[in-house]
Amino acid sequence: MDLLSEPHAGARRLGPVDAEVLGARLREQSRIDEPTTGPVEPLEVEARGRIWPHLAQWALIELTEISSSGARRLEEYRFVPASDAQGVPAFAGTGVPVAILFERSPNGLSRARIYSVEELAAERAAPLPADMRLKLTRADDVMTRYFAALQDADMAATLGCFEPQGYLQSAQGERFIGRERLRLLLARWFRRGGLSVRYCARFDDGARTVLETLLPDGAPALWVCERGRSRALSAVRLYR
Questions:
Q1: Is 70 contained in some domain?
Q2: Do 77 and 155 reside in the same domain of the chain?
Q3: CATH code for the domain in which residue 167 is found
Q4: What are phi and psi of 192, to 5 degrees?
Q5: Which of 57, 134, 153, 197 has the fewest Cβ atoms within 10 angstroms?
């Protein structure tokens, strides 16, 4: 099975997924970097990781977005806990936000990096080092302005990067839609000053850019940034 094209080849088929099928795909990875285990064999993630599609743990696993380019494919999910699930991390919204980035190496092996909520990543080592050659350029336009505004803790400039009804989804899964709600989240972020990120890897899928980064304290974070018709940001989703 080509894990970057199956089982969702062609059209973006979103919606509920079979937990056993997702688990089988993860077991076929050569390595998985999960927030609570670090980079280990898939069977160890299945045994010890807090984000695994165990049938008894999750009432629903829903695929919400797919982004892909070349050897990389990002799948965004919503994991809804079962009523008697144990050890579910804190989340906002209707389910635990989970992002799985599959990456195929030149020798054909596939590995995965899992990002989720902040609680799970409290002591996570960075899956990737910073790439000093990776820069946003003038061609990235709103992306360049957005991360520059975050670094400067410039509220007005950051808000100006979004469409009027654009949203920012926090690492806990809560969505802040529109300028006034965005202001609430950004005020929380800017309490300690600007948010400077170092870039580790990126890929683009049309108007969507996926960035793996390091935050100021060295913690990893994954950003999914979408541009609307105006070329301003229509959505930013953050995973840890």
A1: yes
A2: no
A3: 3.10.450.50
A4: -105, 15
A5: 134
Domain assignment present for 44: yes
Give the H/E segment covering residue 44.
helix 42-48
Asked whether the beta carbons of 33 and 113 are under 8 A apart, the reply is yes
Do residues 48 and 114 share a domain? yes
Domain around 185? 138-239
Residue 30 shares a structural domain with residue 81: yes
E-assigned strands of 105-161?
Answer: 110-115
Nearest-angstrom CA–CA distance, 151 and 145: 10
The alpha carbon dihedral of 63, 64, 69, 71 has a sign of: negative
**How many Cβ atoms from other residues are within 10 Å of residue 181's Cβ?**
14
For residue 213, the surrounding DSSP H or E stretch is strand 208-214
**Cα separation of 61 and 51, whole Å?**
11
pTM over 0.70: yes
CA–CA separation, 179 and 192 (whole Å): 21
**Residue 89, φ and ψ in degrees, nearest 5:** -70, 155
Cβ proximity of 66 and 74 under 8 Å: yes
Work out the end-to-end distance of the chain between its first and last CA atoms, rounded to an integer number of angstroms.
28
pLDDT tens-digit series, residues 191-238: 989 999 999 999 999 999 999 999 998 999 999 999 999 999 999 999
For 11-33, write each residue's pLDDT tens digit: 458 999 999 999 999 999 999 99
If you count DSSP H runs as helices and E runs as strands, how many of each does the chain have, helices first? 5, 13
**Tally of structural domains, the chain:** 2
